[in-house]
Amino acid sequence: MVDKTIIKKIKAQVESKCEEMLSFFREIVAIPSTDSDIGAVAKRVEAELKKLNYDAVWWDKMGCIIGRIGSEDAEVHLLYDSHLDTVGIGDIDEWDWHPFEGKEENGFLYARGACDEKASTPSMMYGLAIARDLGLIPDNMAVYYFGNIEEVNEGGAANAFVVTEGIHPDYVVVGEPTNLNISRGQKGRVEYQITAKGKSSHAASNHLGDNALYKILPIIEQIKQRQDDLPNDDFLGQARITVTHLEVHAGSRNVVPSAVTIYVDRRLIAGEDAYEELKQLQALIGERDDITIKIPEFDEPSYTGFVFPLEMVYPTWLMPEDHPFVQMGLETSKQVAIESQISKWDFSTNGIYWAGKAHIPTIGFGPGEEQYAHTVLDQVKLDDVVKATEWYTLFPAVLKEKS
């Protein structure tokens, strides 16, 4: 256990930086970063990282911002992951306050991205800087703040960072909202693209066409019915399948569609496989030339123009509850008087790459409640942003002590 005098010093340092840190938090929330364009907010983050005297601050090819404390040749690399992009605001009329200017009320900040996930950025950045100042980062350890893009293709920025920068963390903490609990996993997901082909004709002469929309409707109904046959996991919950999007390929609304494409979101629990599910859906469709199914590739350029193509498979990941890294998270909470529980995420995070693909020990810890993510009630308790800072400050020392 870390000496109690160190805990007192952490709390005193965090308290002394509190207003400065929360002012920075308000600033980054007020900078829009929808549609994966984090350029403006990342510039503000870059300035703060330099102000906090990080040893290195740089941008990767995708346009993510990185700060490092310690030597790049360190034996141990610990990375804090916080995505800076947010979903859009939707219908502005549904908001009772300006989504970016936000409002503060009863100790909460309400704004787009307050919960998901800009709240972890100031806590992580200041936490690591305070850890350095208090001598809590071992000489053989490098710690990283990774401000990234996540909403459009979770795990993509993390994967690209490892490949293009050549940095492979030994441990990762993801700052998505956990309500100050320790998340040890999440469902995976995979996207399927199903296309039905027909023959176009004028709607006035529909007997001359072959309506692709009529072909896809029975498939949609069968997918809906498939939900009842999906398995359940005691910890991760129910596997899910949902048709989420439909595209009709026709010249106008008075033309029989020649092709229709639907997209299927499948949430996977432990033991399920994206490619086995592909076989199940293929069997549901049958072997036919006019309807095809595939797993699409995400190849949209980032706001910098960088393209990092990836198949849209996002693996389930689940750290054992007794894993030392999970227990380190709980021990850190205990030492800074946070009553953390073991939890999971219902949504998807960059953990699908760190733990799911790269098999790096990963946990989640962050302020905010998942239920408010992507809603017009997007919010975070400011006291929890401060408490999270204490946790992020202490964690490198606990990692050193327990590993």
Describe the protein.
By secondary structure, the chain is α+β, with helices and mostly antiparallel strands. The chain has two domains: 4-186 and 316-402, Aminopeptidase, CATH 3.40.630.10; 188-298, Alpha-Beta Plaits. The chain has ten helices and 21 strands. The chain has helices at residues 4-29, 39-51, 114-118, 120-133, 156-165, 212-226, 274-285, 324-335, 351-354, 382-402, and strands at residues 56-59, 65-69, 76-83, 103-105, 108-110, 141-148, 171-174, 182-186, 188-197, 232-233, 237-238, 240-249, 259-268, 291-294, 297-298, 310-311, 313-314, 317-318, 342-345, 362-364, 379-381. The strands form six sheets. Strands 1-2-6-3-7-20 form a six-stranded mixed sheet. Strands 9, 12, 13, 14 and 17 form a five-stranded antiparallel sheet that branches. Strands 4-5-21 form a three-stranded antiparallel sheet. Helix 1 (4-29) packs antiparallel against helix 2. The model has no long low-confidence stretch (mean pLDDT 97).
Give the radius of gyration: 23 Å
The 3D shape can be described as elongated
Number of domains: 2
Helix-and-strand structural type: alpha+beta
Task: Identify the notable features of this structure and list them briefly.
403 residues; Aminopeptidase; Alpha-Beta Plaits; 10 helices; 21 strands; 24% strand; elongated
